[in-house]
Amino acid sequence: VSSPEVAVVGIGIHPFGRHDAVPGRAMGVHAVREALADAGVGWADVDFAFGGSKDGGNADTMVADLGLTGLPFVNVRNGCATGGSALVSACNTIRAGAGRLGVAVGFDKHPAGAFGADPASYGLGSWYGETGLMVTTQFFGMKIQRYMHDHGITDAALARVAAKAFRNGARNPNAWRRKALSEAEILAAPMIAHPLTRYMFCSPGEGGVALVLAPADEARRYCGRPVYLRSAVVRTRRFGSFEVFSPALALARADSPTVDAARDAFAAAGVGPDEVDVAQVQDTESGAEVMHLAECGLCKDGEQEEWLARGVTDIDGALPVNTDGGCLANGEPIGASGLRQVYEVVAQLQGRAGDRQVPGDPRVGFTHVYGAPGVSACTVLSR
Amino acid sequence: VAAPPVAEGLFTWPAGEPRLIGSRCRDCGVVTFPSQGSCPACTSVAVEERLLPRTGTLYTWTVQGFQPKPPYAGPAGPEEFEPYGVGYVELPGEVRVEARLTVADPARLRIGMPMELVIVPFGETVTYAFAPLDGPGRDGRDGSRG
Predict the structure, then answer these.
(1) pLDDT tens digits for chain A (383 residues)?
(2) Helix (H) or strand (E) holding A349
């Protein structure tokens, strides 16, 4: 394992879900204040910040509430990798010696219902949206449909992923969906994009997360049990990967950006996927969790069926996955989602995850996000 | 008078046997759809228009179960919305093309089934779709009408 350069010394969160009276930006401010308090520092101590939101406003305007200290505050806008990109940028700033104490923050507030998308902003003709092909849920349905065909995954496995998410969400005070659902209820729900039912999909939502970061050798100044950021990697798609919003796909399938980002994150950390004690992977829908487990190198293709039947990815299983309920139970505020995963892993590695604490003193964690139009961000964290 | 295509340059129309219009890289041979001025695989700008084969096999599929948000230009009200099939059809040796399917019944869709290009009504226009070869749904009257 390489020696760590950056540590997470404070974490803060605004509960996910629907909060009609609270602007997205205010959730970001709430999360930053909580993270600062966790690190025992004030906003005036912060040297730099990176933050982002898709629909919640400009992150850098939070200084009006937090304090106009003159710090460099860079807005990040990178789809589902917004939080991961803010984290990579903050991490590199510390590595470069350009700042010591930094904040990475993400928040969002989306209208109800599936995300709408503008073809022109993705370089696609208007016909693509008009004829009903520009719908993210279709991509997820088609990708898992093929994966099930190729690797023997069943509808029961998809239902087990969702049931686990809501079970875990019920144990997480910050989650949106806090009611357990049976596999039968999940399978009987209306079909959104065959084979995926309504309860197998996450919903756009609201929330905010902030992290305070410091050089690893100064971490104990701020935190009794620091968690080290061993690596943080962002990758975009290569030609041939099966991506959302693709009017055509190449005949030869290439590895997804998830495969590239996860492999590079493990290599940079000097840690193997088999050493991970707790993982958060993008579960936009049930099938995404199934496929991403393999793409991240955490299991073999097809092995998920048996893993889910045996409860391997449950909180008390051999490799707990999405212990906070994931996107399925928390919803997806795009700017906040990736940092929520890091928040959860840090809480787990510090042993303060409450009712959802992974037993056995976990030491190594992993996070993964994936989003349109083919971007992934991964981190490896350890005590 | 034939209804106009939903966009120019997507498929040959009017035509007895319409074809999708893609492009092929003169340097590496990769085929894309719709046509574009550069190659996404090798970055070359030496690309030429290519008419794609009319038949292939279903690589994967789903059924759109709810009315998409704008810019979807299908039936106006949620009560008029009918689920429609969407899939990728593998055109052998060329490319996999995403398209509406003329069939929306999961019981009648399976990976690997032969499919054929059809042009179907979509509002005041026509668009492209794929229909099961030698099966029902070839007339575009099975959940495909926009």
Answers:
(1) 567 899 999 999 999 999 999 999 999 999 999 999 999 999 999 999 999 999 999 999 999 999 999 999 999 998 888 999 999 999 999 999 999 999 999 999 998 877 778 899 888 999 999 999 999 999 999 999 999 999 999 999 999 999 999 999 999 999 999 999 999 999 999 999 999 999 999 999 999 999 999 999 999 999 999 999 999 999 999 999 999 999 999 999 999 999 999 999 999 999 999 999 999 999 999 999 999 999 999 999 999 999 999 999 999 999 999 999 999 999 999 999 999 999 999 999 999 999 999 999 999 999 999 988 899 999 999 99
(2) helix A334-349
Specify whether the backbone of B77 is left (phi greater than 0), alpha (psi in -120 to 50) or beta.
beta
Q: Which residues of B touch A192 (CB under 8 A)?
A: 65-66
Q: Which of A58, A51, A60, A29 is nearest to A104 (CA)?
A: A51
Q: Bridge-partner residues for A104, per DSSP?
A: A50, A211
Query: CB-based contact (8 Å) between A141 and chain B?
Result: yes
pTM over 0.90: yes
Collect all residues of chain A within an 8 Å Cβ-Cβ radius of residue B65. Answer: 190-194
Nearest CA to A31 out of A9, A53, A13, A17 is that of: A13
B47 in contact with chain A, both atoms CB, cutoff 8 A: no
What residues 79-118 of chain A have any CB closer than 8 A to a CB of chain B? 113-116, 118
